[in-house]
């Protein structure tokens, strides 16, 4: 039925009333956000954890001191405000008591210190912490205070983290080294910790963690150009000096928001305004974390920008910490990398390219006895990788459930694939062998990374010039009073306290919002003006996205025009530094024992040959490894670490001489009954009934033929 003038007037009146009511409620939510920001500051910006916790070690009382501390998560929710009154008192208490479950491998979860505060990995029940607790694992978190200790460096932070991990390991002496989960910035910090102290770290999970800072696809990953286009690390030095030795984390948050102006300026606010009756609590919960700005020392931010973001030294094997080289190939425990194609801060190339850059080939990964697993999400954004409840219920749940089983995989490179839920609500997990080319296929080639070498050289030159010519004048002007004034004048802070009850113009909003709620009349979904509103919003969002794409394209073209030309590249005559050769972990004497050993060695070698023959390994196959010791009295010694050590050694032999490893099985198993028994054990444990097992069944048949054991 065509609309009449009267109906249009009715629709217009209804929409206008709703527009006004939504605007009042939206403004009141911003007022509440400002008050929440101030309250969070008054309480010392405690972690946004939704779980109760106990402080075990406080880094401020260690030597050297840091602003980090270790806490144990309790398997219950925190009552509202439970950490407000006694938070400082609890921090100073060392509650090193007996763990309630010392038999399970503990998890240590580390949240990013990249402008925001800690606790986001446990801000919801369905989170990394929640998934680990649901499966019965002890959970610890490494948290941090707002202000770092004066003179704090990343070297000192690494020492503190190592002591925390040692404390967790000592509380669970029978459980093996702790599994580490590092989110974003904490991911690369966890990887560096594992490389420096492989003796105390177990499996390491890197969620959205960059370690290849120059990698990316042209036209898609503009954040990597910022360091070069702004002249490099000298700006970090300047802002550290303007902060009187402290770098304001609000600058990092502003950089994240600048990546997506449509979301920052319009989309997230329109989403709240259009759903103002239902979205307030969710919005305020997230803003408590997003609006909590944490500091770094000038030394810390200088190291991060100079050595990692601009210098890319971790990937090149040129990083130094505590006066010793840090080589990511020194990682011993299994590595799990979780990245997403929808992540514009840590795209898959930056999360994964360090693997082929350091190891070079899957054969070298195998020779060093390393197991690397990666998993890719199609759409989730950077924060969603470690914040989304949906991701936690699927990806993080399955990663945590598989963490001990991954150690039974033959050394190599795998992609972890998770199926959708079946009718019973269960998921199948499989590990598919991959080559380094599969990772590099995610990129458009790494030739463009050569342009980052002169950008790094220019960065060092600019920083030296700033320190020599400008720093003395800046430091002469700066004191704590004007440094704090500069922090308080940051736009992100003004947008919060400026719309709080500190602003007298906001006072009428509280009463107005109460009146609107009492008289609330939402617009009907079929109102034509509501449809026009949606069209206008979409047009604004698309316009801002168009601006972003144009801006990023110009910046990318400018970067390569400046740095990818022979004149500027002459500033770095060494060119792109290839990864240095690293001694293999395979011991020569192991190959001397290629035909040595008996029944246990032969069983494990057959299983390694089957799993490593480009065959997909399902998680239920790995679960079966736990029962290997029960299959025969001669296998009783193969439990836990002994089995993993045996898998490592046999994998090394198979990698170095696959043909010799196969043919020597006849000498290791001279008795035909033992041959049949070994083949039967391997088949029972590894081969199921799924289509993914077809290749493994063929490989098993080939080994059976070699051993002269035809199937019955």
TrEMBL record:
Q: Which domain of life is it from?
A: Bacteria
Question: What is the protein name for this chain?
Answer: 3-hydroxyalkanoate synthetase
Which organism is this entry from? Desulfosarcina alkanivorans
SUPFAM superfamilies per UniProt: alpha/beta-Hydrolases
């Amino acid at each position: 039925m065509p609309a009449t003038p009267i109906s249009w007037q009715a629709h217009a009146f209804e929409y206008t009333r709703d527009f006004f009511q939504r605007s009042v409620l939206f403004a009141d939510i911003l007022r509440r956000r400002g008050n929440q920001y101030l309250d969070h500051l008054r309480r010392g910006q405690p972690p946004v954890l939704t779980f109760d916790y106990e402080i075990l070690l406080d880094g401020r009382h260690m030597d050297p001191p840091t602003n980090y501390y270790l806490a144990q998560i309790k398997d219950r929710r925190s009552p509202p405000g439970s950490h407000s009154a006694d938070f400082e008192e609890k921090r100073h208490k060392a509650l090193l008591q007996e763990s309630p479950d010392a038999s399970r491998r503990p998890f240590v979860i580390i949240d990013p210190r990249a402008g925001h505060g800690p606790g986001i990995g446990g801000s919801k029940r369905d989170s990394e912490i929640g998934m680990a607790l649901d499966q019965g694992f002890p959970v610890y978190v490494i948290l941090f205070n707002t202000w770092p200790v004066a003179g704090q460096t990343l070297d000192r932070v690494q020492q503190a983290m190592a002591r925390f991990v040692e404390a967790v390991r000592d509380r669970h002496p029978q459980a093996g080294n702790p599994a580490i989960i590092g989110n974003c910035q904490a991911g690369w910090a966890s990887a560096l910790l594992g490389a420096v102290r492989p003796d105390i770290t177990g499996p390491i999970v890197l969620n959205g963690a960059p370690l290849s800072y120059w990698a990316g696809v042209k036209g898609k990953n503009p954040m990597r150009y910022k360091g070069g286009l702004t002249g490099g690390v000298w700006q970090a030095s300047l802002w550290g000096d303007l902060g009187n030795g402290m770098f304001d984390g609000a600058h990092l948050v502003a950089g994240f928001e600048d990546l997506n102006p449509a979301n920052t300026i319009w989309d997230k606010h329109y989403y709240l305004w259009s759903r103002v009756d239902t979205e307030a609590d969710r919005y305020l919960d997230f803003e408590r974390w997003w609006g909590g700005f944490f500091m770094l020392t000038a030394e810390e931010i200088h190291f991060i920008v100079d050595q990692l973001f601009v210098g890319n030294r971790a990937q090149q094997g040129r990083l130094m910490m505590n006066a010793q080289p840090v080589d990511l190939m020194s990682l011993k425990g299994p590595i799990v990398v979780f990245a997403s194609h929808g992540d514009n801060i840590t795209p898959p190339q930056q999360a994964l390219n360090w693997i082929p850059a350091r190891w070079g080939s899957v054969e070298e990964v195998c020779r060093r006895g390393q197991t690397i697993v990666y998993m890719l999400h199609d759409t989730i954004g950077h924060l969603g990788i470690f914040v989304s409840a949906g991701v936690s219920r699927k990806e993080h749940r399955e990663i945590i459930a598989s963490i001990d089983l991954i150690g039974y995989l033959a050394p190599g490179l795998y992609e972890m694939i998770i199926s959708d839920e079946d009718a019973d609500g269960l998921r199948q997990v499989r590990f598919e062998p991959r080559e380094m080319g599969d990772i590099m296929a995610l990129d458009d080639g790494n030739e463009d990374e050569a342009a980052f070498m002169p950008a790094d050289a220019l960065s060092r030159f600019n920083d030296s010039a700033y320190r020599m010519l400008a720093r003395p004048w800046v430091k002469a002007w700066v004191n704590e009073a004007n440094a704090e004034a500069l922090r308080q004048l940051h736009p992100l802070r003004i947008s919060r306290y400026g719309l709080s009850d500190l602003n007298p113009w906001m006072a009428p909003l509280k009463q107005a919002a109460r009146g609107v709620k009492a008289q609330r009349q939402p617009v009907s979904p079929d109102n034509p003006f509501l449809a026009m509103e949606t069209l206008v919003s979409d047009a604004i969002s698309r316009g801002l996205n168009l601006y972003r794409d144009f801006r990023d394209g110009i910046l990318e073209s400018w970067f390569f025009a400046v740095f990818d030309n022979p004149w500027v590249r002459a500033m770095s005559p060494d060119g792109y530094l290839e990864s240095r050769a690293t001694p293999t972990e395979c011991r020569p004497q192991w190959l001397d024992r290629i035909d040595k050993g008996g029944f246990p060695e032969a069983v494990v070698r057959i299983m390694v040959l089957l799993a490593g023959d480009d065959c997909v390994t399902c998680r239920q196959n790995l679960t079966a490894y736990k029962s290997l010791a029960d299959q025969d009295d001669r296998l009783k010694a193969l439990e836990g670490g002994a089995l993993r050590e045996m898998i490592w050694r046999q994998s090394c032999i198979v990698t170095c001489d696959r043909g010799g490893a196969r043919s020597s099985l006849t000498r290791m198993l001279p008795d035909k009954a033992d041959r049949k028994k070994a083949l039967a054990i391997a088949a029972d444990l590894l081969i199921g009934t799924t289509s993914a097992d077809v290749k493994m069944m063929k490989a098993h048949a080939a080994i059976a033929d070699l051993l002269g054991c035809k199937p019955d």
